[in-house]
Design goal:
The chain has 2 helices and no strands. The protein is mainly alpha-helical. It has one domain (16-83).
């Protein structure tokens, strides 16, 4: 549905420059999401606390999840900063 944002309170028309910036932010967020997915599938994240053959500890999935959440929050804030919705 074209122009559906006009039916949602708080949304405004964006300039082409703003649309381009939002799309760039979305593309960067997608790249970050793919990197996080790689970290979550990394072989060292699949084992317990035992070091790998090189004596390195496994990836800490708790911190990777915290990082993913913070990245999502950051990209949402950036998008909101560009779009400047008119409501809280």
């Amino acid at each position: 549905m074209e122009n559906q944002h006009k039916q949602i309170a708080g949304y405004r028309d964006l300039t082409q420059a703003e649309i381009d910036l939002v799309n760039k932010a979305k593309a960067l967020a997608e790249q970050c999401g793919k990197f996080v997915a790689k970290l979550r599938q990394h072989p060292d994240s699949m084992r317990t606390n035992a070091p790998n053959a090189l004596g390195e500890p496994p990836l800490d999935q708790r911190w990777i999840s915290i990082g993913a959440t913070d990245l999502q929050r950051g990209f949402m804030a950036i998008t909101r900063g560009i779009a400047q919705p008119t409501t809280f």
